[in-house]
Amino acid sequence: MTPLPQQTGLSHCSVAASAAEAGYRIDGFEFIPRSTRVIALDDGAEQLLQDCSRLPWAGAHFLAFEGAQRGSGDGLTGDSALRTLDGEAVWLSEELVGADVTVMVATTDAAAPRAAAIGQACAVNGIMTAGVVVQSGRDASRVTSSLRPYAMVLLVSAEIDDVPAVLVALRA
Amino acid sequence: MLKPQINDLLTQTGPGTATGAVFRSYWLPVLLAEELPEPGSPPVRVKVLSERLVAFRDDDGNYGLIDEFCPHRGVSLWFGKNEGNGLRCAYHGWKFDVGGRCLEVPSEPPESRFCDKVTVTSYPLVRIGDLLWTYMGNPDAQPPLPEWEFALVPAEQTFTSKRWQESNWLQAMEGGIDSSHVSWLHSGGLKSDPLFKGAKGNEYNLSDMRPFFEVADADGGLFIGARRNAEEGHYYWRITPFVLPSFTMIPPRGDHPVHGHFWIPIDDENCWVYTFDYHPVRPLTPEERQAMKDGHGVHNEYEPDTFRPLQNKDNDYMMDRDAQRRGETFSGIKGIAMQDASLQESMGPIVDRSKERLVSTDTGIIKARQRLRRAAEELRDHGTKPPGVDPAHQRVRSAAVVLPKDEDFIVACREMLKVQPGVRQASV
Asked: d(Cα A41, Cα B106) in Å, to the nearest integer?
């Protein structure tokens, strides 16, 4: 057993930061999995998420933006229709219940108004938002600009596999 | 979160490793030029990418970086005598030139050419700016010399230091990419450090504690933008370039010199942090240079005659809980460099990333790891040259700007993020 620092005269940090002490880290911990909503804002993003959704996740919901609105005619303050990637209709307000983070995925600037609708809803509910723009060689500045006010983090990425990489890192 | 095998891929940099091969694709800083100040200087031990080497300068001023150990009986050439055109082993007098060629084996007859059959590993060593750089890869693939701006401006405009960090290179480098910690860990320094204080941009930092982040691909790596609210209808952007494998540059503040770092693996549990400060268009003032030497800004104080920080894990980094309580420092550790290093070393020599719980503001780190992983795998599997080797990728700057809210920082700052000789840095 490694002696306590008081017994050896060594500083706490020099013992604590050693490779030997790293072996005493608590292995595994109880946690409630993060509740992640991953929403495709356009057809290209939905195709990307179809592949991504087949990987094992810790409860992430993969969704596509449908467009229909209820509650308000302005497309921003009402509720937005989504669907699961299997085609089941759901409402954004219902999906955001219990969500910790919403990741919006876009490949074209057609996604601009959709990002606004989701971003507004998340802001009202205090939900963290992230955006991933998969450029694929096209100029994505308009969709980036549209996501910017609503995404606390924006990844303007040219790589398709950045989407699953981000979700894996977040334990989605 | 990274699986253990990916963590190993990115953290292991010794011979035969994938990320080690990435590092070997570049010119790497391995010494301060002042460590071999003149021809005939005593040899200096160099450990880099888990190889033990010794550096010296022959009487003609040529730099050499060769295997530390004499091929005769394995004695360290650090004890050797720098004599004329080579380094002579102190044990039996074998002599080697800067190219690792054996010049003499004294115990052999004078006519013997046995020495022609003996060479030790050697790498080119060149001086650019304040640093000595080496290339440890395939000689046939040697890239052009590096073109980092801080190393090419006149000597009076630049200052470089180095320190030993007792952790793996990657957890150290990730601190340079992650600007979300600045508002917490370094909150005391913006008001008081002579190399930071007084900039208009600091007001935005201190009034908006929740920056939003944007991560964009760049030819050599990434640009990471952190935006905060500025005047009505505008954002204050601080843009950090990351160039593979381990270069970052901190966005400027006012007209202060601009700084950045390289993290160079010594072995898998230690790295060198090379820290530069430079001004693109004017000499550093005597006060600025003295502040850097005194350990202000992103530099640090040292244990005498070493490159080990004065504040280190053997003295608990000279923790000052009273200063922490008073709010002078957030962690109780003085100085930005050691505020970072103390926490990064506390993770353990190689942090276990399988235990991480990242959040979306860690996206810069996530993306950097992706780029590094991709570079390592592409090089290993297809021989693809990694990003950042091309000198064009090294001609980057950081920037701090105020932009209208609807402007894309990458588009608006395209020219500012490139080196423009004679043009000052984009700063607020």
From this structure: 76
3-state secondary structure (DSSP) of residue B200: helix
Nearest chain B residue to A140, by CA = B408
**CB distance A166–B366 less than 8 Å?**
yes
d(CA A119, CA A75): 12
pLDDT digits over B282-292, tens only?
999 999 999 99
CB contact under 8 A, A155 and B406: no
Contacts (Cβ under 8 Å, ≥6 apart) of B139: none
- The ranges of chain B with pLDDT < 50 are none
| Strand, helix or coil for residue B137 | coil
The whole-angstrom distance between A69's CA and the closest CA on chain B is 26
ipTM: 0.76
User: Is A166 within 8 Å of B363 when comparing Cβ atoms?
Assistant: yes
Which of B316, B360, B411 is the closest to A170 by Cβ?
B360
**Is A126 an 8 Å CB contact of chain B?**
no
Q: What DSSP line would sit under B313-353, residue for residue?
A: GGGGGG--HHHHHHTS-SSS--SHHHHHHHHHHHT-SS--G
**pLDDT tens digits, residue range A61-117?**
999 999 777 765 554 457 899 999 999 999 999 999 999 999 999 988 777 788 888
- A143 to chain B: closest CA residue: B408
**What CA–CA distance (Å, rounded) separates A148 from A155?**
10
